[in-house]
Amino acid sequence: MAYSLSPLEQDLACPVCFEIFKDPVILSCCHSLCRTCLEQIWRGCLAGRECPVCRQQLSEDHLSSNLALRNKCESFLQQRKEQASDTQRCSLHLEKLNLFCVDDEKLVCPKCVLQDHQNHSFWSIRKAAKPLKEKLEPHLTRLERKLYIFEKCKTLNDQQTVYIKSQAQNTENEIKEEFKKLHQFLREEEAARIHALREENEEKSQRMKTQMEGLNNQIMEISARIRELDRQLRDDSLLLQDFERASERAEYTVPDPEPDFGVLINVSKHLGNLRYRVWEKMKDLCSYFPVLLDPNTANTSLSLSADLSSVSLSAISSQVPDNLERMSAYRGVLGSEGFSSGTLSWEVDVGESKDWILGVAEESVSRKEPHIAVPENGFWCVWREDDEISAGISMSFTESLGTKPTLQKIRITLTWEKGLVMFSDMDSNTELYTFSHVFSKTMYPYFNNNSTHPLKIMPAHIG
Fold first, then answer.
1. Which pLDDT value is given to residue 3?
2. CA 248, CA 228: separation in Å to the nearest integer?
3. What is the mean pLDDT of residues 419-440?
4. How far is CA 106 from CA 16, 117, 345, 349, in A?
5. What is the biggest distance separating any 2 CA atoms in the chain, rounded to whole angstroms?
6. pTM of the full predicted structure?
7. Residue 309: predicted pLDDT
8. Beta-sheet strands, E only, within 72-224
9. Between 20 and 30 A from 112 (CA), which of 27, 234, 288, 356?
10. Alpha-carbon gap, residue 99 to 121, rounded angstroms
11. 236-270 pLDDT per residue, tens
12. Which helix (H) or strand (E) is 226 found in, with range?
């Protein structure tokens, strides 16, 4: 504003935009304004043209440039630019500070040397600044790396935020489709499910918004420090004058961001066993699956059925975020629920698939690096390649269970306390293989399909 300007700047400032005149024009009332400012004011004026300063009515058909004022403004701007780019000068002698006094650790000009620094040692500014630069440059590198990490995390959060919205919409559509199959008296249950979904969508979207705000704040802070350090590293005089503060600003110990676990919509909670949960009202119309698939863990190459009971290899990779739960390195998907006690049994129809892995996996298995499905890596599984069935015993040993071309349905039984995982051929009612292990972690059903033919979890019979 005008009151914050110097007297000269006030004389050279446009009364409309308060900036130094740009292409000033002079009116018949002798007031001058920027040509652009005046044209913008007059463009929306319906009551005739008047001077914005004195309100005098004018009749100008042509705006005359104020050449003298324009030249004065250009001269002033050039002078200000040169002053801004000039090196710092001695406040006492108004001469350039071009030496560094080693004894007093300060910048001095030639007159300072003669007056107060006789018999002192001096360095050039470049030599004096070099060790300080060497101390600060690693900090700059670390800050730039930290900025990269924060921006990478922000990108993932952006993807997850968009995906949460699509998950919410798709899940809502599936819920509505399920409820269309029910009678009118179940509509209240439908409304309750949709309300729960929308609440979770709102809560998790708000959660992501809060995280995004935090990341934006950290990124702004780190960026500001980088710009400040970069400016000081390019200006040796400025660095030598304020090295202590530069060192403090270079130290930034805020820990790197870690993506949250469980930030996506819990689709299984809303869609899983949906009909069974209203069993008391519509028992005979419902199918109950003892195990359901968790789409948040599914590899992008897999396609899951709408009711989360089957999985097959897809021709097109799905566009989903690489969240922490997702098995990115291999074509696997986990069950939606983990178990750390009791006995759980489920049956899988392998159909025409000739390339699959079935079993259980620890919750802590690596999901971003490829691993063989053996106990050493947290998996207790059997698999099929063509017609050969094998059990993954260890990294160095696989036990063949024979050739079984007619194998169609497999029952898997996990008895957590006894540490048993049993695989059975349902059609012949014979045991395929049993693992024995002392479990200490939560175990999840595990499915891996390298075929377009689906693996189907079979519904359980409810008496």
1. 40
2. 12
3. 95
4. 45, 11, 79, 81
5. 107
6. 0.58
7. 96
8. 99-101, 106-108, 122-124
9. 234
10. 10
11. 888 888 888 888 888 888 888 888 888 899 999 88
12. helix 187-234
